[in-house]
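Supplementary Methods. Inverse-folding protocol.

Structures were first reduced to a discrete structure-token string of length 202. This string, shown here, constituted the complete conditioning input.
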């Protein structure tokens, strides 16, 4: 949520709402549910052993414009990119659409609008996360998680340790994921949809 509030100098969410024909109040209500839910889904996927899938979903520096340009995020291409991101996190299109339907019901908003807003919002979030974690860092993390990194304070594992909070290895001997997971849920309070999120993930 904090990341999205920074988009386009603080104007991104309002511009995204305008692109999709939503009033600001409705867009804010949906964002307060959906943005933390996206982060929680990424966090759960990582904790369930799918960290490589989450990192792979963030790869692609051409995604950054989705964070910087609401029109790009709201475009058919942007929505398709966002839906692909959601499918990787949730486990499939049906699961992502289930999350949108639940949000629409809770907010009292037409499902058609939410089915456009959710993937556009996901594309914007994906772009913002990608700006924070360039492909070079993602590639290093992927190599480390697959066992290809070398535990050297001045090499790849040293870089990963700095990125993930100063420790190159976690309790199980792999990279420490604590700061990476925190990035997905910065304030730690999750989403109003957390209570049913597991229902829509596989």
């Amino acid at each position: 949520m904090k990341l999205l509030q920074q988009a386009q100098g603080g104007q991104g969410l309002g511009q995204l709402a305008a692109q999709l024909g939503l009033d600001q109040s409705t867009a804010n209500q949906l964002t307060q549910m959906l943005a933390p839910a996206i982060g929680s889904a990424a966090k759960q996927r990582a904790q369930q052993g799918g960290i490589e899938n989450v990192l792979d979903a963030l790869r692609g520096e051409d995604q950054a414009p989705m964070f910087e340009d609401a029109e790009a995020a709201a475009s058919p291409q942007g929505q398709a990119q966002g839906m692909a991101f959601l499918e990787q996190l949730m486990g499939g299109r049906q699961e992502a659409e289930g999350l949108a339907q639940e949000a629409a019901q809770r907010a009292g908003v037409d499902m058609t609008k939410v089915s456009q807003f959710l993937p556009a919002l996901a594309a914007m979030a994906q772009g913002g996360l990608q700006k924070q974690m360039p492909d070079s860092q993602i590639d290093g993390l992927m190599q480390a998680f697959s066992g290809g990194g070398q535990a050297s304070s001045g090499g790849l594992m040293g870089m990963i340790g700095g990125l993930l909070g100063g420790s190159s290895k976690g309790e199980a001997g792999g990279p420490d994921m604590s700061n990476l997971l925190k990035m997905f849920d910065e304030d730690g309070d999750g989403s109003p949809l957390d209570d049913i999120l597991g229902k829509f993930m596989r």
